[in-house]
Amino acid sequence: MDDLVTYFPLLFVAFGVLIILVSIKGIVDGRRFAGRAQRVPGVVSDVRTTFAGQGEHLRARRRPVLTFTTVDGREVTTESRTTSDLGVGNATDVLYDPHDPTRAVPAGDTGGGPGGIVAGLIAVVIGLAFFAGVSGAFAGVGGGGAGDAGSGTSRTSETRCEMQNPDGSVEPMECPPGLFDGE
């Protein structure tokens, strides 16, 4: 059980790393898309709002519906793949995939940004801090600590020893003389 408590904060670290990786992928994919996309003038002809969650956790996502004319003269109306605060009637440059013009976004919203990376770093730091605190709090208790060497005693920061009883309880005790000589 102590191992579960000790290593639980590492879930924050793993979650943070996952957030960072997904954010980096979003930034890279957005830049690749912008590199191969065609830029044309367009207009927001509608805004589609979708809701997720319930009650106070309800979140709204607003995706603009873009109307634009491709470089080869086709008129296209499609829902953006990214969310935006653009309102109906706003003129905007549109980036679209020349092979699939329905893949389009407002030019300023190619997706991805540093916010996800920052959130991931915060989760990693919090997880590592809790792990350091929890693993330090349990060092030497329950056997297997670095100072215990299987003898049932362990050393703490005040050079005190503990005895683990057969029932699993731990009692403080005076350290035997000379135990830590030679360290």
Task: Write a structural description.
The chain is of the alpha+beta class. It contains three helices and seven strands; from the N terminus they run H-H-E-E-E-E-E-H-E-E. The protein has helices at residues 2-7, 10-36, 114-137; strands at residues 38-52, 59-69, 75-79, 91-97, 100-106, 161-164, 170-173. Strands 3-2-1-4-5 form a five-stranded antiparallel beta sheet, with helices on one face. Helix 2 packs antiparallel against helix 3. The longest helix is centred in the N-terminal third of the chain and has 27 residues, at 10-36. The chain is elongated and about 90 Å long. The two termini are 31 Å apart.
List keywords for this structure.
5-stranded antiparallel sheet; alpha+beta; elongated; 183 residues
State Rg: 29 Å
The shape is elongated
Query: Total helix count?
Result: 3
Structural class: alpha+beta
- Proportion of strand residues: 25-35%
Give the % helix: 25-40%
Number of strands: 7
Strand order of the largest sheet: 3-2-1-4-5
Mean pLDDT: 80
First-last Cα distance: 31 Å
Multimeric status of the protein: single chain
Biggest sheet: strands, sense, closure? 5 strands, antiparallel
**Low-confidence blocks of residues:** 140-157
Give the gist of this structure:
This protein has 183 residues and is an alpha+beta fold.
Strand and helix map with partners:
Blueprint: H1 2-7, H2 10-36, E1 38-52, E2 59-69, E3 75-79, E4 91-97, E5 100-106, H3 114-137, E6 161-164, E7 170-173
Antiparallel strand pairs: 1-2, 1-4, 2-3, 4-5, 6-7
Helix pairs in contact: 2-3
